[in-house]
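# step 3/5: fold
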Amino acid sequence: MSDNPKYFVIDTNILLHTRFALEAFEDNIVVLPMTVIEELDRFKTKPDELGRNARAAIRYIDGLREEEEAYAKNNGVEAANLVNGISNHAGGKLMVLPESGLETPDAFKADVPDNRILRAAAHFKKRGEKVILVTKDLNLRIKASIIDIEPQDWKADRVDTDELYSGFRDLPAAKEAVDEFYAEGGIKLPGLDLHPNEFVVLTAGENHSQSAIGRADGPESVAKINKNWERAYGIAGRSVEQRMALQLLLDPEVAMVTLVGGAGTGKTLLALAAGLEAIRLDDQALKSNGELPYNYEKMLVTRPVIPMGKDIGYLPGNKDKKMAHWMQPVFDNLTFLMQAGPGAGKHTTGKVADRKVQELLDDDMVELEALTYIRGRSIARQYIIVDEAQNLTPHEIKTIVSRAGEGTKLVLTGDPSQIDNPYLDASSNGLTYAVERMKRLGLFGHITLRRAERSPLSAAAAKEL
């Protein structure tokens, strides 16, 4: 441990966000006020991600305690108890601080859990230590600042959303370069250092009158996009970003795709259209040699069960009936696709489209599943769509991605500006985290959709409200 270690006082919400916080402070001292242990005990029975993280944190702390006792027994020395600190796996110390004898800062009620955490931080501040309070609670950070204690948010898995990888670049180019691109089917662009599956939009001429879309086929070169991937189940991209998204969604070599964008940009619709296209088994989907271009057995669609605003409470019926309420946005998009896709005509009414959707469900070609039931599964040869993925933690995203078996494609869609999970924000959610961590892998692709295409009213709302 360093000669002048920092004292990091950890709030409960940090451990509920990620258990790995206890290993992230290197050779410093991590302080858990007794209040945090008590709050973890209250969360440990919950069946959700918060409960899993609470149990993992408790097991980790208990494991350190057992290691310390075993070391002391084998070496014939007195064990350091948990109050005085035990060594963690990062080379520092972990302390659980009793609250007896600690003074509550003036003007703060002693029976408020947040104030008891502040009391622990103030204890070390009074001793002259360098103290940092780590919390995701904005109010607690304000309180800490009032009594001159440095507050910080958990930063280990945060992403700068202003610098979030967009999946493409807009580059001005000479008219001759665009002509060469079309003539040769690609072009070299020295010095770019492109990520795998990154797109480049070349623009030339007055008012960008001439343009071309290229896809990276090396760090310094791009090639034409695939014309066979311009449409999916009767849907063509309306914007440049949607056209690029379809290239990734329909490419069987890209095993994971993330789509980020505001309301009405077409994230869910494009993903569902590509999924339906990929599982089509009719003659139109056959290659000229008679082989299917894809090997997906079904499309699995899921989304977090997190309400916007106040929860409406208990939902009656079996699992499918309960899920129908959460999946209504998916049903809306599927119904639209049934009216726009192959075999549909001007007489395809909403009722006919609804019946076609139900047939897909009855034939087990499309499955709607709750994320609650995905842990432990190994999902092979399926086209998986996770909608509203901005409401998932980085650990939940890792759990989902690790479920993908051989031949499975995973699509994550979401809008980081519309998060309903109270423990996440635009910088700490699992969707943006996945984009930044996966962007250098050849099996991954990402597009940020910038323009709303749902309707003029939707576009106006996204811009002005």
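# step 4/5: annotate
The CA atoms of residues 220 and 327 lie 42 Å apart.
# step 5/5: archive (pending)
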